[in-house]
Design a protein that fits this description.
Elements lengths: L1 E7 L3 H6 L1 H13 L3 E6 L5 E6 L4 H10 L1 H4 L3 E7 L18
Antiparallel strand pairs: 1-3, 1-4, 2-3
């Protein structure tokens, strides 16, 4: 599983100009079952996406496709972790520590 942390690298006004495209990008990866949760950070200097079911290389490719990245208004920090304990709602992404 991955924590994808977005940090804005441009003023919020520039981010807002890309918001519709970013939301469409999010919607596509929710439909594909990759994204599990997402939202703005507080204070609003970026966002967080929880993702799973893909490799590190795939998640880096997905992040690079974000319209925010393409427009140069955010940077990603991607942290991989093994979700050995989850709520019942996330049982399908639970992993073994092996």
């Amino acid at each position: 599983m991955f924590v994808m942390e977005l940090t804005y690298t441009a003023p919020v006004e520039a981010v807002e100009e890309q918001m519709d495209a970013h939301i469409a990008w999010l919607t596509g990866y929710y439909a594909a079952g990759v994204f599990l949760a997402s939202g703005r950070k507080v204070p609003r200097d970026g966002g967080i996406i929880l993702a799973g079911g893909v490799s590190r290389a795939e998640i880096e490719k997905i992040a690079a496709e974000d319209p925010f990245v393409e427009a140069g208004v955010c940077a990603y920090r991607i942290t991989e972790f093994i979700a050995t304990k989850t709520s019942a709602d996330l049982a399908t992404v639970r992993e073994s520590a092996g």
